[in-house]
Amino acid sequence: MDNPITPDILKEFKERLRLGDDEDSNLLRILLASLQALKKICGDYDIEKDEAFKELVFERSRYTYNDALEYFNTNFLTMINSFGISKALDEITLEGDVNAKV
After folding, report:
1. In 10 A of CB 35, how many CB atoms?
2. Burial letters 61-90, b for 16+ CB under 10 A, else e
3. Cα angle for residues 28, 18, 63 (degrees, 5° grid)
């Protein structure tokens, strides 16, 4: 599997947190773990195409970086639920379209 955390995404995250280049490997690991965790909960979103999902990944990564991950789900529950519901509705719509064509 290719790493979906591109150098541009890493750079954007580092700029947001005002971090230098000395933590790149740690930040890549945090971003990738956040992306994978959120995809399990919210569905398979593309971090490069969906700015709102990228924002959620960045927020989870920020919480992880600051050793406060235990607060993330509570603070972002509405956003997490919205992504999950949206993805479920998209799948229902796609399934309905497929069944209509059969």
Report:
1. 22
2. bbbbbeeebeebeeebeebbeebeeebeee
3. 55
As a whole number of angstroms, the distance between CA 91 and CA 68 comes to 33
The residue to which tokens 């541009």 are assigned: 8
- Backbone CA torsion sign across 71, 77, 83, 89: positive
Distance (Å, whole) CA 32 – CA 91: 25
The model's pLDDT over 58-81, given as tens digits with 9 standing for 90+, comes to: 999 999 999 999 999 999 999 999
CA distance 23 to 61: 13
In whole angstroms, give the CA distance from residue 38 to residue 9: 16
**Per-residue pLDDT reduced to its tens digit, 7-47:** 999 999 999 999 888 889 999 999 999 999 999 999 999 99
d(CA 72, CA 87): 21
Per the model's pLDDT, the better-predicted residue between 25 and 96 turns out to be 25
